[in-house]
Every structure is written in C-alpha cells, then in structure tokens.
C-alpha cells in the first residue's frame, strides 16, 4: 500500500482489497453488485467511506456488467402487454439499464432460442413474458446462469410474477351469477396458456358454479379480434345466450361487433364481460364491464425483481398482481 | 495486383481497392452497405462488374453478418406502430433474420444512443422508426457503416419509407369542407415530428382551404388519450366547433370521451375525423371516419428494403405508403 496523507489520500481498488483483507475480485464484485458476504460488504463500505474512494470509469467499464437487459414478449400488439412493457422499460431505464426486446409472436420455441441469443449478447438478466412453460423451458431455465424473471406464468422452480387470475375469474363468474344469468357462453383460450387458458378459466367456471351455473358453452379463440368474432358466431349458433364472458377485452370487442351486426342489444339481450380494462372500454357502448390487472405495476415489479436478482438481493418466488373490477354497463 | 487472364480473372478485395484508388476498408464498407461517396461507389461497382467479382462466402461469414436486425421504435403502445412492427418482424423472421427491438419512448436522443449500441451488437442493419431527424441524426447516419432504413420520417440523405401524409391530410380536409363544416378545430402534434406535425397538418389545412375554411382552431397534443382530452377541452373553451379533426385515432377517442361527457351528440353537434383505422373504430359509436395507412405493408416494405440494402440490391430512396379512407358515421 502506498503511503498517504491521512484519510483524504487517493487510494486504489488494490489498496481497498488489502485493507479489507480480500481479493481485488471481491472489490470488483462489490462495485458491480455481485454477491459478497454481508460482513465483508460492510467492511468494504467502511473503508470506502473513510478514504472517500470513487471508482474510476475505467474500472466500471472493465466490469462484466453490460447494463443490457433482455425482455422476451409473446406479442407487441397487446394492450395489456404494452402496459407491462412500459413499466418494465421505464424502471430499467431509470436504473440505467438498456432494455432490448424480442418478440416471439406466441411461438414458444422462439422463447428458448431468444434466451440463448440474449445470453450470448451478454445481457445482465432476462424478463420472459411466457406463453407457456414446457419441459424444454424447465431444462433450459435450470441451466441458465443469468438471472431470469418469468412474467405471466407461474414457474415453481424460479421467480415468477403472475396475475391473480383465479380470484379475478371467480369474481367475474360470481358477478354474472349474482346478476341472474342462466345461459352463459365463455370464450376461452388454449390450455397451453396455463394462466389464462386454465387458471383464469377455472376461476370463471368456479365462480359461476357458486350460482349453480354448470352448463357453460365454451368456444376456444386466440387473442385476436377476428378469432373472437368466429367464436361468438359459434357460441350463438347452438343456444340463445344471455351472457358471454371473454378471456380478454380484445375478444369482447369482437363479441360486440358480432352482436351489433346481428341487431341484438347489450345488455338487454346479451351481457358481455371480460378481462383487460383498456382505455377504449370507457367510450364503447355500452361501456364494458371488465377486470383490470395492475399491469403497469406488474412491469415495475418484474423489473425491480430482476435488478434485485442481479444484485443478489433476496426476492419472493411468486408475486401475485392485484386487479380491480370496473363496472360498466354491459351486464344487465 | 496479381496478373490475370483478362476480364474473367479472379480478383480480390485488395485488387478492387487498388483499382479504385481507395482503401480496403472502403471496399468493405461498400459490401456492407456503409456510407461511401456516390462517385466512389460507382467506380467500385464498375470494377466489380468488369471483373465479375463475387465476394466469397468466407468473406461474407467473416464479414460481419450476424443475422441480427435492430429495430428502433418510439413507442410500444401505438396501434399503428404495432402493425408496422408486425410487418417488419414477420418479414425478417421469414428471411431468417432475428430482430431485436429497442423502444425510445419518444426520446429522440435515445435513438442515437441505440443506433450506436446496435452497431456494437453487430447487427446487419437497422430500421429506425424516427420521431424526428435532428442534425445529430444526420451526422450519425452519415458516418454509420451499416445499412439503415428510416421509417415514418423522410430522410433525404438516405433511404426512407413514409406515409403519404400530405395527400391523406388534403383528403380529410376536403372531406370536412365538402360536408359543409365551418368552425373546425384541429388537434395537431409538435412540429418536431415533421411527418405528422408538419406534413399531415399542412395537408389538412390545405384541404380545408380549398373550401375556404381558413380560420382553424388548433390545439397541440401528444399521442396519448389523456392529452387529447385536454386539447379537446381547450378547443371547446373558446368557440362552438362543428368539426374536430384529429392527428390520430387515439386522439379521436379522447375527443369522443369529452364530447360524450358533455352530452353533445356526434355527428349532429360535432363531427370527428381522424387518421388511424384501428379495428376498435368499427365498434365505437358513432363509427369513426378515418384514414387507414397500409401499415402492415409499410413494415413488410421496410424490412425488404433493408434486406435489399444488406445484399447490395439497389432500392428507391423514398417509398410512400398508401392509404384508404374509411367512412364511418362520425361526420355529418
């Protein structure tokens, strides 16, 4: 260690390492948010404070943190998805990370490919907005050596952030039951999407069953407007329905289109209810009753969780995102 | 230069450089779509043609093709923007490129930062959906040595793909004039956005002037629903308006909200018209009259143009995207 003029002399990382009795690598880890034992951390912090040490830019550049974050999403035209993305991006940028986004277009194989690619691009961590968790996902995620947060699907072997789909579903189902509907149709999505296709759907069906509505007509659609129109026509083919529950607001808009085309009245002839809470729901007629998840906050939480993981801070395994029920005029 | 057997002999990149009197780097830039003076370019092209030069696969592989494409967008919650992105992404994926997306959240400084970053990530080319073209943009773009296509703003020194905003604006302005409106309000966006804030606006105002409507009340908003609501209230404060023209459908939805809140009738009290053509426009009441640009196709064209640039195929400097007028029931 170089001699000095007391506590104001300029010291180097090497000096700090010597003073703390650790290696230079440990000091480097300290500055780049890597894992260090708590007591070592405190010792280093004390020395830095005492000597007023400021790491120079070169040392920071030298570190392996790329400050890049990978975000993998299933779609870029989803209103809820873009709220989550907004929360994610804003948070990462505020904390000086640069997010790069890859879109899988709902192809779950691409999720795996993109995770590998992002790893090679040397991102500090990944947020995966997953459409499904396959065995291949589990295999890849297990051996992945950078932090990852799964959004949208529960992932028992890692960290995930999910909507409270079951309880939201129950609330919708019970609301429709309480309002004395009998012949209920439901536009569901494929079960591979566990969160929406299974958990949300089960919630809805359980909620309805609390009001003895057991015989629900179900049609499967994807997340598009057009596909919901097809599903609605299918549902209306067999039975007069007095309510249609949709898995997403975009589906509900497809239902509106078909119902209006047929000259049916909402909610007098058919009630419609959904999950989403788009801003447009306020100006369509009748105003759509819907469940709105706090998706902006979900994005913020997912980003903060990933940053915590990068910095070795402990996080919860699963975080459930809250929702609010927005009562419109689409249910009689 | 090696001796040869006339114009069919095999020459190397080094030979071409010597013949053209430039450095090997310039030749490399030529093959990788970087900026070269026009006359140098022509000289190189001539030599290549004369000697039938084909860059070999090894050189190509060795050259920096990463099969990654960077896409820089100003927002991820724009409906039109997501149509363009869908077209871009689909095309790149079909042609075995891997697109990575960066969102600037309308901060044009980030556009520059992200271009530099993408270059360092070694992408084969960039599509920039630009909010504005500043002097810094021009400076950076000029020295950029990978192909770039600008979407959404005209860029005279390079390749751009833009909506035919002027003519679309004229069509809207004339339509409102033809329908005998007198007191017209217009929700514009900042002039920094030349395509929408200047070209589209000028088209609208010129179209109106063809019907002697010169005194148009103008309020400035951004692209959000909330900001359009504020602008509408401002417009309605001073004058009874019989028509409000919006720069985008999202703004029109904000106008609808305010008009409905005030108990005014559309189109009897106020006509509303806009640019966008969102699918939701079909189910709001009254159905919104709007101009729909062929944005999916714009994305496809932009992707194909970039791929052509990467492969040294000649492309047009500016490509204008067509539109269709969708007549709803929001104009009396």
From TrEMBL, chains A, B:
SMART domains: HTH_LACI. Residues 11-64 form the HTH lacI-type domain. Residues 9-58 form the HTH cro/C1-type domain. GO terms for molecular function: DNA binding. It comes from the Bacteria. Keywords: DNA-binding, Transcription, Transcription regulation. InterPro entries: Cro/C1-type_HTH, HTH_LacI, Lambda_DNA-bd_dom_sf, Peripla_BP/Lac1_sug-bd_dom, Peripla_BP_I. Pfam families: LacI (PF00356), Peripla_BP_1 (PF00532). This is LacI family DNA-binding transcriptional regulator. It comes from Brachyspira innocens.
């Amino acid at each position: 260690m170089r001699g000095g003029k007391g506590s104001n002399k300029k010291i180097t990382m090497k000096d700090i390492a010597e003073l703390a009795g650790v290696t230079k690598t440990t000091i480097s880890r300290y500055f780049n948010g890597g894992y260090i034992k708590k007591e070592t951390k405190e010792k280093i912090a004390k020395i830095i404070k005492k000597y007023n040490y400021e790491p120079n830019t070169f040392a920071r550049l030298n570190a392996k943190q790329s400050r890049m974050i990978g975000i993998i999403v299933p779609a870029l035209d989803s209103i809820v998805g873009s709220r989550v993305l907004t929360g994610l991006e804003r948070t990462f940028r505020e904390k000086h990370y640069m997010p790069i986004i890859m879109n899988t277009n709902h192809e779950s194989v691409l999720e795996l490919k993109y995770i590998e690619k992002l790893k090679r691009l040397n991102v500090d961590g990944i947020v995966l907005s997953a459409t499904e968790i396959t065995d291949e996902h589990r295999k890849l995620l297990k051996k992945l050596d950078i932090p990852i947060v799964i959004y949208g699907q529960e992932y028992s072997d890692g960290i995930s952030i999910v909507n409270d789909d079951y309880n939201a579903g129950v609330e919708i189902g019970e609301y429709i039951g309480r309002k004395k509907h009998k012949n209920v149709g439901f536009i569901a999505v494929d079960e591979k999407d566990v969160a929406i296709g299974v958990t949300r759907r089960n919630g809805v069906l359980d909620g309805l069953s609390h009001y003895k509505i057991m015989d629900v007509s179900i049609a499967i659609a994807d997340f598009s407007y057009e596909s919901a129109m097809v599903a609605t026509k299918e549902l209306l083919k067999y039975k007069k329905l007095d309510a249609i529950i949709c898995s997403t607001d975009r589906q509900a808009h497809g239902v509106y289109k078909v119902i209006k085309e047929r000259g049916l009245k909402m909610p007098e002839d058919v009630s419609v209810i959904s999950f989403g809470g788009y801003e447009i729901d306020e100006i369509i007629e009748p105003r759509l009753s819907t469940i709105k998840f706090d998706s902006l906050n979900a994005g913020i939480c997912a980003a903060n969780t990933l940053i915590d993981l990068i910095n070795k801070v402990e996080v919860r395994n699963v975080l459930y995102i809250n929702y609010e029920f927005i009562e419109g005029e689409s249910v009689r």
